[in-house]
Here is the input.
Amino acid sequence: MILTNVSGTLGDIRLSINMSNYDVKIRNHWINRDNCKDLIATLERGGSHVADLDIDNLSSRDQMHAGLLNATKTFVEWIDLKPGSSVLDLGSGLGGSARYLASACSAAVTAVELCPELNEAANSLTRHLGLEDSIDHLCMDITAPGGLKIGKFDLVWIQHVDMQVAKKSELYTCAAEHLAKGGRIVWHDWLAGPGGPVIWPLFWSADGEISFLADREEFTNLLKTAGLEISRLEPIPDLTTSWFEKSRLGLSRVISKMKSSGSKSSKLDAFESLATEVDNALINIREKRLIPFFGEAVSR
Ligand SMILES: C[S@@+](CC[C@H](N)C(=O)[O-])C[C@H]1O[C@@H](n2cnc3c(N)ncnc32)[C@H](O)[C@@H]1O
Here is the structure.
């Protein structure tokens, strides 16, 4: 495997990590997203820029999935998570859901993220919100050979990550290995649907290159091989459509306001790209090219 040394800085922290070309593509994709760039820059500016951040006003930036904080709250209800549970958040991004789980459900969370910049930003935000005793942020590849070996958990949480993971067997083996007795793995994620090829761009991939969607049958079979079985799987097209329609309305308002004020900024470009991704997501759902779902699996 070809490894690239990725280095950079975030505040005072020097980053240096060996990544495969595939991982570098994933990293470049996420650190260049407007929400991630914006949050990383806010943290670098520090001081009053950071002082007012809280779980609610961060949510349009640190909840990196369809439906943002509303989706996380609905997912937590669907799971019926017991207060004080231990949670392993695989592919935790900027840590928005980890912080919600820690603050609203008193969960003890271990959050694992591939991109050093996102992981550092997540860690800073967690400290800023005073949640560092409840959340450990680790920068690791959740499909690493030999697994993560970081203990056992009541819940393994996978939210909008599965669709981007090429090595699904490694991911499910890793998730299974970290389950405590009676534990569960839960997904808020995407499956390939029967409606035909996916229309790009979407928010996790511009052209499908860093997207690895399984269909329901492949998903079930891969879980079986990892010693897991699905206990619940609920497609959520209507719910996801309503979340996206709401965001689209908000985006349209912002875009027309910016245009009527003559703005030609990179922010306007970012909002217009986001609007295209939301439109495509809505078409993909309507035409059953993509199936958003909540799912749960247990050891067999
Ligand atoms: C769409 S974001 C979701 C982040 C978070 N779960 C959320 O919902 O806010 C997908 C995240 O998965 C991470 N990721 C993708 N492949 C990974 C891997 N092999 N190991 C760890 N993280 C990974 C990406 O870097 C990205 O931060």
